[in-house]
Automatic annotation (TrEMBL):
It holds the Pfam family His_Phos_1. This is Phosphohistidine phosphatase SixA. One of its GO terms (cellular component) is cytoplasm. One of its GO terms (molecular function) is protein histidine phosphatase activity. The lineage of its organism: Bacteria, Pseudomonadati, Thermodesulfobacteriota, Desulfovibrionia, Desulfovibrionales.
Amino acid sequence: MGESPCLPHVPRRLPMHIYLMQHGAAFPKEVDPEQPLSPVGAEQVESSAKAMKSLGIKPEVIIASPKKRSRQTAARVAAALGVPESDIMVSEAVKATANSYVTLEFLAGLPRVESVLIAGHLPNLERLAALFVAADGKASIAFQNGGLTCIDAPRLENGQGTLLFHITPKHLRAIAGA
């Protein structure tokens, strides 16, 4: 992993709900070097977004990595939830190999928002979730393409987050009625 399990204190003005979604399934590199969402991945994201809408989840900001599959995931979720495209941010801070400290500093620098969705990648999402919910950063949360995790983060410090839910794509499809 190469990261210290302790996060530096990153001041935050208010609590934040952090939604984490691994992008939908993508085409293999051999088929398309840009690895956009596959038809299966597009369906995963569509049904996840429909479930989010049913649950009343509407993040104020959606963050994607520069990778096409992440940007497509963010755009589909935003469209389904009525989040303006202008509220989608693209940042290297949420790429697969990003250091979790960089991701946290990015989150701390956001304007006053109470909820954010990161449409991201492994291993960054796993590391970030682990640092929020376990003081030693050694929690294990198994992400799946199109699944949704929510962490309540009153402070951006290790072990200070609460895992509110972790919903698999299968259960999101059921919620969406798909």
